Amino acid sequence: MKERDISKDFDYYYEKKNKALFESFHYITTMILVFFTLVNVFSNNYIEAKVDGLMLVYQWLIFILYKKKLNYNLSIILYLTGIGFLVNAVHYISPQNLDSNVIWSPILIILGHFLGGRKVGLFVFISTIIVVISFDYLKSISPGLTSYYFPEKVFVFNMLIISASCLLSFIVGRKINLSELNLVQIIKDKELKNLALNKDTISLLSILTHDFTAPISICQMYLSKYMRANSSTEYSKDLKKIEDNINRMIVILDNVKEISLAKFGIINLKYSEVDLRDCIIKELNFQKKEIFDKSLIVNLEWNKKEEFFILAEEVSLTNAILRTLISNAVRFNKTMGTLEILLKNEKNHVELEIRNTGHQIPEEFFNHIYEIGHSTVLKGEFKEKGMGLGLPLCKEFLNHMGSKIKIINEPNKVAVIVKFLRFAENNNKHVA
């Protein structure tokens, strides 16, 4: 992997970690400021309390602006500079025997460096120096409320301490950054090895599923031919069961291949304008035997005057999504139950809802319904099996299409809601 790629990953990791630290630091600082404000109020130090209160308002203003997309590094600089201003303002009003800049300024510089990096640390160092010099000059012309003024040697000592802390934070920070960068490099090396291993595994799966599917498909073809020629034989029911199981084996092999490709992110879907209503009707016709066998009442609810065009890849939409969702609704419905399919247009989506009056999905299955590693195969009233790899593959294709799926699991009512992207002229060239 190229060095610049690792640096980008490191920058992302570094910024994400430090943003969390900054937010924690803000809440801790807020609690400290509230405490000191209350102490000053009860101690009748009203001027100090007002300064603390104003600082509290200032910090929350910066934090809110940061949440509203103010640049992160600028937020750090303004925030820490504000704290430095507060410390100097309080000690201008009520100075102590030792200037607390000896403690606070190095802390602010180090925080600036670790929260925002070297550039931010340098800006905080410069702003701290400016604030300290400004207040020291202010003390020389107007000693404040207590007529106390720091000797020149104390000021020089403070400047040396602040400069030394800045240099130290840069040296230590660089070593920590290099250590973290090495850690990211190790993680990336492992990821590359895993990707190579996954690629080999997926290639093997593709070959195996193809090689298994070919002879099984030939068996299916000859079996269908034999059944058509000998439909009245006493073995026709048994042969039909064999044919059904062969069909199921082919579906499973196709699902294994497709979901392997999906997990590796190499599905190539060419999206186009697809009539969702038309696809639903075709799929219902495809499954009309299963619907008839269970004597299901099918209710189709949509506005016939409206069009329901979505951005999708039609083959995947039909074979991997609608077939899975409708077949599950049929399999797990009760005999003489109701199957409802609703369509409605929203601003940017077309919402599909498939309801059935079947049994509630057991909780232990429902929690892992999209996970390949958990067994989620259930049986319907006629011992039909479903919800194996179908739903994980369905969700994978929906994710690639920018669509969302939600399952409502209640007693005597199970519903699947899918929000498809509506077709727009500027989207018809989208390829995943």
TrEMBL record:
The keyword Coiled coil does not apply. Coiled coil: none annotated. The keyword Membrane applies. GO terms for molecular function: phosphoprotein phosphatase activity; phosphorelay sensor kinase activity. It is an enzyme of class 2 (transferase). Gene3D superfamilies: Histidine kinase-like ATPase, C-terminal domain. Residues 207-425 form the Histidine kinase domain. GO terms for cellular component: plasma membrane. PROSITE patterns: HIS_KIN. It catalyses: ATP + protein L-histidine = ADP + protein N-phospho-L-histidine. This is histidine kinase. It comes from Halobacteriovorax marinus.
